[in-house]
Recover the amino acids of this structure.
């Protein structure tokens, strides 16, 4: 890995103009060996040929039945070592799954005790000064990555063997504040809004730029391809607005009957309530207007779908 210089501390005038957060739910799996990249291509929904030291990719690993095991962002070092950033609760399942088909491939696996931190505002701007600020663009230094993030969830992530040490001007966001930010951005979280056992197209992997339909074969591909080409996607994740905070969630989303599930919810700074919900994939169609107007949470709170959750800008 080549060396770059991380940003210097911000001046006193930048106080409260930026925030940081520790993403303790994420961990890093290192894939080494001369066959790592070719092997991951046969196991991952996204096209691994898009991966480079300046471009990370996003996708999922599937069971042979086409159901999700884990979602992850994959980064590549200059020596072509791969780093798989994923939810720590899925590490054992991910390792087991990747080792299952690894016989005959020159590939090694190691879980790393690395830190993952998010930055917002001026700190992130300095981190990304050498990048083009497109989603998942990245740069590397010695055992560290700076990763651009999309759509306001965070401006950048710092993934490193040693944590970046913020100065006193940096306000740390708690879990509730991080949730508020991602819900406001309309970004679902694996393990909260969807998870293991879900079909990836029911979790908006097309809209999240997390699946390729022309990369060639990979484990679990057949089901996803069939759903895509035969218009078999029945549900999707949407950002929604509620008239008030529901008494509890997750909870059903109802019309005349239960048709979906509200999984995340947060009150915004302006007092509005936003959430993430799984709803019928056709809910935004013009002929569904009456159904949309009748939507409410299980305890009767009116609910309005705003847009499908996506990472690809022209889908919103």
């Amino acid at each position: 890995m080549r060396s770059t210089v991380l940003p210097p501390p911000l001046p006193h005038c930048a106080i409260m103009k930026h925030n940081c957060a520790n993403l303790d739910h994420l961990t890093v799996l290192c894939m080494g060996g001369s066959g790592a990249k070719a092997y991951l291509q046969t196991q991952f929904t996204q096209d691994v040929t898009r991966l480079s030291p300046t471009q990370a990719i996003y996708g999922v690993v599937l069971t042979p039945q086409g159901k999700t095991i884990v979602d992850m962002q994959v980064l590549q070092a200059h020596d072509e070592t791969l780093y798989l950033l994923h939810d720590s609760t899925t590490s054992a399942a991910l390792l087991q799954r990747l080792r299952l088909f690894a016989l005959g491939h020159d590939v090694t696996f190691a879980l790393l005790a690395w830190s993952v931190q998010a930055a917002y505002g001026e700190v992130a701007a300095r981190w990304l000064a050498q990048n083009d600020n497109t989603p998942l663009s990245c740069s590397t230094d010695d055992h560290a990555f700076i990763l651009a993030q999309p759509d306001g969830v965070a401006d950048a992530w710092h993934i490193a063997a040693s944590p970046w040490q913020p100065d006193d001007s940096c306000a740390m966001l708690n879990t509730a504040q991080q949730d508020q930010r991602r819900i406001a951005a309309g970004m679902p979280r694996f393990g909260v809004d969807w998870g293991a056992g879900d079909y990836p197209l029911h979790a908006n992997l097309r809209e999240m730029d997390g699946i390729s339909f022309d990369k060639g074969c990979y484990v679990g591909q057949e089901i996803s391809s069939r759903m895509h080409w035969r218009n078999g996607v029945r549900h999707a994740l949407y950002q929604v607005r509620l008239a008030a905070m529901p008494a509890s969630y997750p909870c059903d989303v109802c019309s005349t009957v239960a048709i979906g599930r509200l999984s995340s919810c947060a009150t915004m700074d302006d007092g509005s309530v936003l959430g993430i919900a799984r709803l019928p994939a056709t809910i935004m169609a013009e002929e569904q207007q009456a159904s949309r107007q009748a939507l409410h949470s299980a305890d009767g709170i009116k609910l309005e779908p705003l847009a499908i959750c996506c990472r690809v800008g022209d889908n919103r």
Residues 13-184 form a domain with the Gyrase A; domain 2 fold (CATH 3.30.1360.120). The chain has two domains: 13-184, 234-310.
